[in-house]
Amino acid sequence: MTTIDQFRDTFLEEPGYLNYASIGPVSATVRDELRAEYDALTRMRFGARERTRAHDDRLADAVSVMTGHGRANIIAQPNTSTGLLRVLFGLTGHILMSRDEFPSLPVAAVRAQSALDRLSITWIDGADGRVSPDVLIQALNADITAVAVTLVDARTGYRADLSAIRDVIGDRLLIVDAIQGAGVIDADYSAADVVVTGGQKWLRAGWGTGYLSFSDRALERLDPVISGYTGTAEYEPWGTVPDAVRGSAAAFTVAGPDYIAEAALAAAIEEVTSVGIGQIEAAVLARADEVIEMLDAVELPIISSRKRDEQSGIVVVRPVEGKLGSLGAALHNTGLTTTSRQGTVRFSIHAGTIDSTLRMLKQALLVYRSSADT
After folding, report:
1. Helix, strand or coil for residue 258?
2. How far is CA 14 from CA 270, 276, 352, in A?
3. In this structure, what are the phi and psi dihedrals at residue 60, rounded to the nearest 5 degrees?
4. Handedness of CA 340, 346, 352, 355 (dihedral sign)
5. Calpha distance 217→194 (Å, rounded)
């Protein structure tokens, strides 16, 4: 087992970083994993190929522990968007989703609808990133066969309750974009039929890492439209083009995986499992509470939820009209990395966010308050 303090020691970024929801600086664990793998790839000693290919099974084992899906139902992905395209192009029927989801979801749905004309979309409007069970109850109808949500909304930090959503939607497929919660939120992934995420944010595994995790039911209902030669029953189908193997996660692959990316992501997930997602979530929310207290002290309007079961590592403020520029300048001039979009500023805080970063934030907010008072 890894303690939470040992986990914090794997954070190597410079003070001032509050932007994990954009990109998580690679952890020391993943850095060491990558160094070892690239060294092996450089030398390619006898037997190295077989050892490297073993990371396919290693990642499946790690993800299976995280999602509860069978290890045979898991494949590597280079990013969340690619995984969502493969899933939504394979979907037939009627899907329900918020128009305000991060673009990966609605774009994939519309592309699938336009290309194949076998998928219909019902849009939820006005949810403001908060797709709650009550919102879904109002939008569901008998035609809907699938529901897609994000685990944590990128603009508000709102955390979806997957168990409650499952209770509401019944036997419909539940597709979850987990990119903003994987590795830091204790979610009931077993309630989902498809979990797709990239590892470059909160898991701190770097770009090019991710996974698709299917329930058995999802594999029965999805058609592997985006499927390459590795999705057939033959190892290398020379001279023929066999059908994709229905009911198999492998059917959704197009080629061999990036085994080094798999090693990086597996190492990141293994470490999360070793610490315990509950401990990590508690540490994240405790750090986020400190940030919320600082923001309240300077009377910045917080649009993130204050309900504990809806919170995440994302805290978002919407300064009053005319004050966004002065807040951005104070943060920038203090050396803080955050995200600003659509009139808001997003702070994303991890378990390893260090004290010096929070001191820098406090200093920046005092500068902002001073400028706001003048």
Report:
1. coil
2. 24, 25, 11
3. -60, -40
4. positive
5. 10
- Number of Cβ within 10 Å of residue 344's Cβ equals 17
Q: What digits encode the pLDDT tens for the residues 134-152?
A: 999 999 999 999 999 999 9
Is 311 within 8 Å of 181 (Cβ atoms)?
Answer: no
Element (H, E) at 168: helix 162-169
Type and span of the H or E element at 39: helix 28-43
Counting Cα atoms < 13 Å in the Cβ hemisphere of 36 gives 11
Q: What values do phi and psi take at 129, rounded to 5?
A: 80, 0
Say if CB 145 and CB 218 are below 8 A apart: no
Question: What tokens were used for 299?
Answer: 């009377």
Lookup: tokens for 65: 């522990």
Q: For strand 210-214 and strand 119-124, is the pairing parallel, antiparallel, or unpaired?
A: unpaired
Q: Is the pLDDT of residue 154 over 90?
A: yes
This prediction's pTM: 0.95
SS3 92: coil
Task: For the chain, give the number of residues.
Answer: 374
Report whether 20 contacts 313 (CB < 8 A): yes
